[in-house]
């Protein structure tokens, strides 16, 4: 399948539309910017898995070279241990790949 090429403006608009069009991510306040095909997501979410979902939804749009997440997570101070362990495992895997 041939590679899809998009302008930065079109790419950012499509990813923003994907985030707003998804039933779970539509309430997140995520901003999307693109430069040279690399997309940066910014904003604030409440949980780590919300950041991961936003990245996944954005990655569903074709034509990008990379996605950087600068999404801040406003953690609740009383997070369950299982949630913290899952985040550590996933971040460790992402670093090693």
Walk me through the structure.
The chain has 97 residues and is α+β, with helices and mostly antiparallel strands. It contains three helices and three strands. It has helices spanning 8-21, 48-59, 81-96; strands at 29-35, 38-45, 66-73. It has a three-stranded mixed β-sheet with strand order 1-2-3. A hairpin with a 2-residue loop joins strand 1 and strand 2. The longest helix has 16 residues, at 81-96.
In short:
The chain is α+β, with helices and mostly antiparallel strands. It is built from 3 helices and 3 strands; from the N terminus they run αββαβα. β1 (29-35) and β2 (38-45) form a beta hairpin.
Secondary structure layout:
Layout: H1 8-21, E1 29-35, E2 38-45, H2 48-59, E3 66-73, H3 81-96
